[in-house]
Write a structure and sequence with these properties.
Layout (H helix, E strand, L loop, with lengths): L1 E7 L2 E6 L2 E5 L13 E3 L9 H7 L5 E4 L1 H13 L4 H8 L3 E2 L5 E4 L2 E7 L7 E7 L2 E6 L30 E5 L10 H17 L4 E4 L6 H10 L6 E4 L3 H8 L19 E4 L2 H5 L6 E4 L7 H9 L6 E4 L17 E2 L2 E12 L2 H40 L35 E2 L2 E2 L9 H9 L18 E12 L2 E4 L8 H11 L3 E5 L3 H6 L8 E2 L7 E2 L10 E2 L8 E3 L2 E3 L4 E4 L6 E4 L10 E2 L4 H10 L4 E3 L4 E4 L3 E5 L5 E4 L5 H12 L2 E2 L1
Parallel strand pairs: 3-4, 4-5, 5-6, 10-11, 11-23, 12-15, 12-16, 13-14, 13-15, 16-22, 23-24, 26-30
Antiparallel strand pairs: 1-2, 1-25, 2-3, 7-8, 8-9, 9-10, 17-22, 18-21, 19-20, 27-28, 29-30, 31-36, 32-33, 33-34, 34-35
Helix pairs in contact: 1-3, 2-3, 2-6
Length: 659
């Protein structure tokens, strides 16, 4: 059984064979929902995850790639989520690499590149005959830093991702066709250049998790150099994380990530110290926190420019935005964040909660330490043949006067002595002289200086959101730099994947309703909270093979196949295939699908001149024609007496498995 429920924008629930799988956690799921597994697609879809994880018991398993873990952590911190909640969840996430397979509750889970963000993932789930592909916010085009998505590689769909039981994807940009990426990048550089030359500043508000590194890398490596300032409370951590995630980037060396032309600052005072006109890349994308403060300072000057790079930002400005800057002359409500110290009852509640958290943490640490000591003792007793002697012998007594069963013993666990080739192993920490430690500590203080025994505790604060109206007199432009598919790519790639059932979500209702995909009949457009049943229509059984049955396994892609002449015995469960006394083998069959782009590359590598001629036709050396007709039928035409015909025929057959 397989069902899907969109919970909210950025959060969905997939039920695969009674395993509840939460897809992202951008908004809080219902309190009664306790998923077994959480899959994260992109770093910006995690804002409700720390609080949800802290309140959920038992804890679900969370799987994501390393960049999603690192950048998701930064995203939560930038949104002022408490660090203890952020660390508690992101430290528990299971890291997985692209194309790495892991098993959870019998479900095979594999991640592939989504292309929209660093480490952003397309998830492929399979269990028996049920399969699902989760492709949210994917990009089929390569960029400066990010590779293309794994769903569409070199113009084809990988065989293992074709014809899934269900494809879950978003319908964003389904009503627009984007200009080429190079043209949009050129437009961004021209806008920055013209604004700086005119004596203005540029503000680019951005999400810290998805498009930030791609934008920084693009500006850092561009031929036109601008004074670029990256304003973020965790900017240095983002740039440091980038160097540890090279395997998720496209042909990048560590030297390429020095960001020599990017100046990272963490507060407005440091920004003000940088003189001259500049490009400010500030968090957050929704014009709040630091980006709101920068916009407030830039808004009165008509020479300044607010450059939006996401269509989701194109709201509440009262004007139709485009790549051509437009003078705003409007008023916008902006949310500012202010830190206020806790006092009175709020401070008491905070201190009580902090004390309870430290108590639980200490209990957990002591329990883990006790379990570790017991495991070490058990391991030592297995390694050695000597018996553990009780130092008190028969006179041992118990301090538990209520204990009645079993021998009375003092509650003491003696650690076994361990030996190596040179005798008893000595633990150096047991022989440390404490007076040396005290001396080394004492030299840190100058003579006559009072020694501080406790660290100064920071005053706890709370975040207060204040909304105010700002008169915008600067220019505003919008250039799409989201790195997401458009109408053309959706209508081209989705039919190539050819899922049995398609689910459209994570977009506006207008975009979802507008997308029509040729050749796909079962298309679902559920509303938030609406559950749709997308169970497969294939009936399958598990059978065992008798030990005496004759099989001739052939490896074909990720499968092993063999022809069988067998009788199905239902006397046991699961049923058993037994060797048939009659050889009922029929004519030879071929398993697989001839993919013309792959065939053409094979012909070229073997020295043929291979060109496409019309739909579904390849001409090799002007003599042999390979044509793919309806229902997958392949026709090879040529002069049978010539060697080229048989060489082409051999290459066609090598792409199939004969049984």
């Amino acid at each position: 059984m397989q069902t899907f429920t969109p919970i909210a924008q950025g959060t969905s629930l997939l039920n695969l064979d009674n395993t509840q799988i939460l897809i992202d956690c951008a908004e809080s799921p219902p309190a009664k929902l306790i998923p077994h597994l959480i899959l994260l697609t992109h770093p910006n879809n995690v804002l409700s995850l720390p609080e949800f994880y802290a309140q959920t018991n038992p804890k679900p398993t969370i799987i994501a790639t390393l960049p999603v873990i690192n950048l998701g952590r930064i995203t939560c911190l930038e949104h002022n989520i408490p660090a203890n909640l952020v660390d508690s969840v992101f430290d528990d996430i299971r890291n997985i690499k692209f194309a790495e397979n892991t098993i959870f509750n019998g479900i095979s889970i594999t991640a592939y590149s989504a292309g929209h963000s660093l480490g952003g993932s397309i998830w492929h789930l399979t269990k028996e005959h049920e399969s699902a592909i989760i492709a949210i916010n994917w990009n089929h085009s390569k960029e400066s830093l990010l590779p293309a998505c794994g769903l569409y590689v070199d113009g084809i769909i990988p065989e293992h991702l074709k014809r899934p039981g269900v494809l879950i994807t978003d319908a964003r940009n389904s009503r627009i066709i984007l200009p080429p990426r190079r043209g949009r990048e050129r437009t961004i550089l021209e806008l920055l250049d013209s604004t700086i030359e005119a004596g203005g500043d540029v503000l680019i508000p951005i999400d810290p998790g998805t498009r930030l590194l791609e934008l920084l890398f693009f500006l850092d490596k561009s031929e036109r150099k601008f004074p670029v300032v990256f304003l973020s409370k965790n900017g240095s951590r983002v740039l440091a994380y980038a160097k540890s995630m090279l395997e998720y980037m496209k042909d990048v060396n560590p030297e390429d990530l020095e960001f020599k032309n990017i100046n990272a600052v963490s507060d407005l005072s440091s920004l003000d110290e940088i003189k001259g006109n500049k490009v400010v890349i500030a968090t957050l994308e929704d014009i709040s926190d630091l980006s709101a403060d920068v916009l407030h300072s830039l808004s009165p000057d008509p020479k300044n420019l607010l450059l939006l790079i996401s269509r989701s930002q194109d709201t509440d400005y009262g004007i139709q935005l485009s790549e051509t800057p437009i003078q705003a002359n409007t008023t916008k409500q902006i949310t500012f964040t202010r830190r206020v110290p806790l006092t009175g009852a709020e401070l008491a509640v905070h201190q009580q909660a902090e004390a309870e958290r430290k108590r639980l943490l200490l209990e957990t640490q002591l329990l883990e330490q006790r379990n570790l000591e017991i495991l070490e003792a058990d391991s030592e007793s297995e390694d050695e043949d000597e018996e553990l002697l009780n130092p008190l012998g028969e006179f041992s007594k118990s301090f538990d006067k209520h204990r009645s069963a079993g021998p009375l013993k003092f509650p003491y666990l003696e650690k076994r002595r361990r030996f190596d080739d040179y005798g008893e192993i000595i633990r150096s920490e047991e022989f440390v002289r404490h007076e040396i430690e005290e001396t080394s500590t004492a030299i840190k203080f100058k003579q006559g200086e009072k020694r501080k025994w406790e660290e100064v505790q920071e005053v706890p604060v709370k975040l207060v959101l204040e909304t105010s109206s700002v008169d915008l007199r600067l220019r505003i432009a919008m250039v799409d730099f989201e790195g997401i598919h458009d109408e053309r790519s959706l209508k081209m790639i989705l039919p190539m994947v050819n899922p049995r059932k398609l689910i459209l979500c994570r977009a506006s209702r207008e975009e979802i309703d507008a997308l029509e995909v040729d050749g796909l009949r079962d298309v679902f457009r559920p509303l938030d909270g609406q559950t749709v049943d997308v169970s497969g229509e294939i009936t399958s059984w598990s059978v065992n093979l008798d030990d005496n049955i004759l099989v001739n396994w052939q490896r074909f892609e990720q499968f092993s196949i063999s022809p069988l002449s067998a009788i199905l015995s239902l006397s046991s469960q699961p049923p058993v295939l037994q060797q048939s006394p009659i050889n009922a083998s029929g004519p030879a069959m071929f398993v697989g699908d001839v993919r013309l782009p792959v065939l053409r590359r094979g012909l070229l590598s073997d020295g043929f001149q291979a060109e496409f001629s019309g739909d579904g036709t390849i001409i090799a050396d002007g003599e042999v024609i390979v044509r793919k007709e309806d229902q997958g039928r392949v026709v090879i035409e040529g002069v049978g007496g010539r060697r080229k015909f048989w060489d082409v025929r051999k290459l066609v057959y090598e792409g199939l498995a004969g049984v």
